Amino acid sequence: MSQIILGKNSVEEAIKSGRHIDKIFISKTARNLQKLLEAAGRAEIVIKYVDPCKLNQYGKNSQGVVAMASPIKYAQVLDILSLAKSRGEPPFVVLCDGIEDPHNLGALIRTAEAAGAHGLIIPKRRSASITPVVEKTSSGAVNSLLIARVSNLPSCIDHLKKMGLWIYCADMDGQNWCEIDFSGAIGLVVGSEGFGVKKLVKQKADGSISLPMSGKISSLNASVAGGIIMYEILRQRKNIKAKFF
Predict the structure, then answer these.
(1) Distance CA 85, CA 235 (A)
(2) Is the model's pLDDT at 211 over the cut of 90?
(3) CA atoms lying within 13 Å on the CB side of residue 174
(4) What is residue 241's predicted lDDT score, i.e. its pLDDT?
(5) Which residues make Cβ contacts (< 8 Å) with residue 241, sequence separation at least 6?
(6) Residue 97: HSE in the Cβ half-sphere, 13 Å Cα cutoff
(7) Is the pLDDT of residue 148 over 50?
(8) Window from 80-94, 141-155, 231-245 with minimum mean pLDDT
């Protein structure tokens, strides 16, 4: 079964990653697609030019480009750890605890990839999966970041801790984000939009991280909070090379 990819950037990234694409529909009014057309030509992908209204059936935010591609292949948690080992880096993993908004999940995937995370983990239940909206919001980062799905997030955290990772939850009642050493093997848990990190997940973690709030609003959007902490992790880990396992 094919999966729809919406938007120029997402389709370009899918082509670059070598993902199988059956065909690309392009609006007759679309412009500035030279790079995409060249990449599609090299990959010998069929292109069909259609009326703009035809693309509306796939999504209103297609930017005049829709591709029919193979579904995203989820990775295993071991794949993420193996990638870190192959790079000689301490693992940096993002765990999403019940992120149900596809825009938030897409934004977290995009930021995790940009911040140098080795992978991202989502639960199989009560969580957004990789949909066309998630892929578009990630700007195609789903094609370059390892994403794993697990049946039980607390059990996954236990496994990661046994492998040497320190697990921290983004939480309003946690330790100040600037006081934590993120230079080693790290797992960052970002909780759901309405309820935050679940109690059991928080109990399994080694600690919690909070961001200062100086305004009247008491919390940040999940993807924004996660992004801020991810870049603090990147700042501390920059140029760090370490053997792990």
Answers:
(1) 20
(2) no
(3) 29
(4) 53
(5) 88, 89
(6) 27
(7) yes
(8) 231-245
Indicate the CATH number for domain 3-69: 3.30.1330.30
Short-list 110, 120, 116, CA closest to 76: 120
Mean pLDDT of 33-56: 90
| Dist. CA 240–CA 13, nearest whole Å | 28
> Which pairing describes strands 146-150 and 46-50: parallel, antiparallel, or unpaired?
unpaired
For the chain, give every domain's residue range: 3-69, 77-237
Alpha-carbon gap, residue 80 to 85, rounded angstroms: 9
| Burial class of residue 147 (count of CB atoms within 10 Å of its CB; 0-12, 13-18, 19+) | buried
State the CATH architecture for 77-237: 3-Layer(aba) Sandwich (3.40)
Given pLDDT bands bounded at 50, 70 and 90, which one contains residue 138? Answer: very high
Report d(CA 28, CA 224) in Å as an integer: 36
